[in-house]
Amino acid sequence: MAITINIYYSGEGGNAKKFAEEMISDGVVKDIRAEEGNIRYEYFFPMGDRETVLLIDSWKDQSSIDKHHASPMMAKITELRNKYDLHMKVERYISDDTVITATDEAFIRK
Predict the structure, then answer these.
(1) What pTM, to 2 d.p., does this model score?
(2) What is the DSSP pairing of strand 3-10 with strand 87-94?
(3) Which domain holds residue 100?
């Protein structure tokens, strides 16, 4: 049962994108991806909102998230969020581990 957190970082003057770029250039993203239990840590840019960055952050379980939140990287993330004056909207999803059905498969082009 994976847990996926969608975090929408929003700011002004391109600050959300600058935040994501600095997270990558400082190696924070690489370190997070190497943490035990991390499945995905990826930034996306919504086409209709130039001031927002979407982070898709997936973990094996809640214990993995708790360990991540207790790691020294959280201080760096918080520091950068404050530096760029970002605000967040958070959505949490728990996978049900259901296999894609034949009905759904009909709409997936591979």
Answers:
(1) 0.90
(2) antiparallel
(3) 3-105
